[in-house]
Write a structure and sequence with these properties.
The chain is α/β, with parallel strands linked by helices. It is built from seven helices and twelve strands. Helix content is 29%, strand content 30%.
Amino acid sequence: MGTNIYFDGFNLYYCAVRYTPYKWLDLLSLCTNLFPTKTIDKIKYFSAKVTAVPWDPGAPTRQDFYWRALRTIQNLEIIKGNFVSWPRYLPQFPFAYDKNGRARKVQVLRTEEKGSDVNLAAYLVYDNCVKEADESIVISNDSDLTEAIELVTVKLKRTVIVVNPNRTTMVHKDPVHCHMHRELMRVATQSVISINEKVLAASQFPPTLTDIQGTFSKPATW
């Protein structure tokens, strides 16, 4: 046995690769670049299918190509959650008030991803109960995972390394590490406080890949 890796897909996207050229991220390469001495057994990627929206109609197509790229990694499994959207009235910004002094509200479409953090926590605890791997690595900065990680490290006495997916940024030529949630650091066996952009750049899929369906390429606009 070796090491199981658990990716919080949306946490990884929003913290590490959004607004960067590194979205075509090879998760196996990322794992081996972050932990070159470890034997990677299984990679479990927790995410949800996005839907088209007027301001980004191509999002589902880009995600389909990325998931297709991920499925070229033999030891990787995608575990799906889901999105829930509903309209809500929230105070507008900059704030404005009606004649009674109440904040004016506008209708917004609220979208939340549901299930992925619960799925990750469940798989993490189950896999460690059945001792499916020697140790676990969780790549997320979501404090909702604190209880599950503590169950594994304290109750089951097993190793969980937590990696904060936030990028290291440079300020005046010095690295500045993004904040890692205190509770995750408390319960982890070991913590990695950020991911260097050089590691992201070195962990990209080739521009063109081949699977059982044929040859496909990284989306041109992403």
